[in-house]
Every structure is written in C-alpha cells, then in structure tokens.
Amino acid sequence: MYRFLLSRQWVILTLVALVLIPVMIELGFWQFHRHERRVAQNALIADNLAAKPVPVEELTSPGHTVPRADYWRHVTATGTFDTAHEVVVRRRVSKDERVGFHVLTPLVLRDGKVVMVNRGWIPTADDQRAYPDVPPAPRGEVTVTGRLMADETTGASGIKDLKGLPDRQVMLIDSRQQAQLLGRAVVGGYIQQTAPEAAGGTPEQISDPDHDSIGAHMAYAIQWWLFTAGVPVGWVILVRREKRDREAAARASDEAEETPEPAGATA
C-alpha cells in the first residue's frame, strides 16, 4: 500500500524533509539566543546608565580592555583638553542619520595620563579631505561626565581602518592608536561625553543607546519552529494524498477491466 515511498521521488522528498527539520530547529534556537542576548544587553545598558558615575580611573587604565560589563557605565574625568592633538572620526551619523564626523579630543588627567573623549557629532565640510571646522573645547580644567566605551575594532564595528587618510582624521576610536600618535599613556576605551553640554549645542552629543526595543527575534524563533512542525505534517498530508490518488487510479483501472464489451463489438 505504501510501496510508493520507496520510489526515487519519495525517497528524495523524505530525505529533504529529514534535513529541514533539524536545520529549522537550529535556526529557531539561533533567533531565540539572539533574543536572549538582546534582553540581557538591554538590562545591562539600563543598569549601567542608572549607576552612579565613578572616576574613569576606577574602571580603566593604559592598555586596559574595557569588559562588556562596564560598557555604558557613567564615569567622570577631570583634566585639560589637548585640542592640538584633537582628531575627527570619519563616517559617523547624527541623530537624524546625517553623515559627518565625531570629534575625539584628548583629555589630559591630573596625573598626566590621557583619556580620549568623544565630544559629539559635527557635519562634514565641503571638502571631506580638509579638516572640518570643529567647535572649540572648553579651556582650563574641566570635569567631563560620559559613558565609558570600549575601543573600536574592525571586527566589532564592521568599519575598515583605512590607511592614507587626511591629517587628523581616523576611522576608528582606538586608545592604543591614539597612544602611538600622542606618545603618552592613554587609558583603554574612551568616554562618550554627556556633560557639560557644548555651547550652542555643537558638537551634537550622542544619544543614549536604545535599550527598550528587543527586535523580532522571538517572533522569528517561533516562526522557524512552526515551520519545523509543518514539515512532518505536510509530509503526512502528501503521503495520504498520494495513497488516495493511487487507490482511486487503481479502482478506475479495475472498473475499466470489469466493464463488458458491447454486443457486436467483434466480428
């Protein structure tokens, strides 16, 4: 009755179904784990943004790699801006998705070490190879508050660290790279400045990271698992339909053989 399942067509169809089931289960778990990571990251961001600011020296030092647990922690740093060694970071977008620069200024701490401060976004100049008109940093000693961020890498950001850029322009915010340019100790990571606000609102300070949305990863996971359940159900439906069609064809053939020939049909 089910010998048709041994046909080449049905063997291939069954094998495809057997391959699809674990693949779609795995894709469902992949989306589920992405959902879990997003939820955990949102909780981490919310907790770190709500934490009381601490001196940046408590969380990082020269050569230190900022761990994920400290991302977005509010820190303070007191020192003097070294605008002579200020650089701009290319291809950065504003709150309204305009492409421009981030202004990266060294802040020389009281002990002589340096922390890099991302003062915010400015628009590009007409000539992108020219150094843009950067709003001046405050003079004298200043206390900066901001979010602690890890050094950027191509692997994590997807931004290529291009060579041969115009003077005082960089692609990535990297404390080790800046330490080589400055010739002095630079603490690991950098600060996204949130206070004090810049005069006239420029540079435009970077907004808090989104920590409310969780994306559609859970919906995608459920969708993949529903597809997984649909494979065996669909296979059974096709088998039953094939069996029914073959039985109907067999009955029609039997009826045709049993129908007597009309009289006078032969000589």
Automatic annotation (TrEMBL):
Cellular compartments annotated: Cell membrane; Membrane
Segments for region (Disordered): 246-267
Keyword Transmembrane helix: yes
Membrane topology: Multi-pass membrane protein
UniProt keyword annotations, A-Z: Cell membrane, Membrane, Transmembrane, Transmembrane helix
Pfam entry (one): SURF1
TM region positions: 12-32
Family note: Belongs to the SURF1 family.
Family matches, as PANTHER family: SURFEIT LOCUS PROTEIN, SURFEIT LOCUS PROTEIN 1
Name of protein: SURF1-like protein
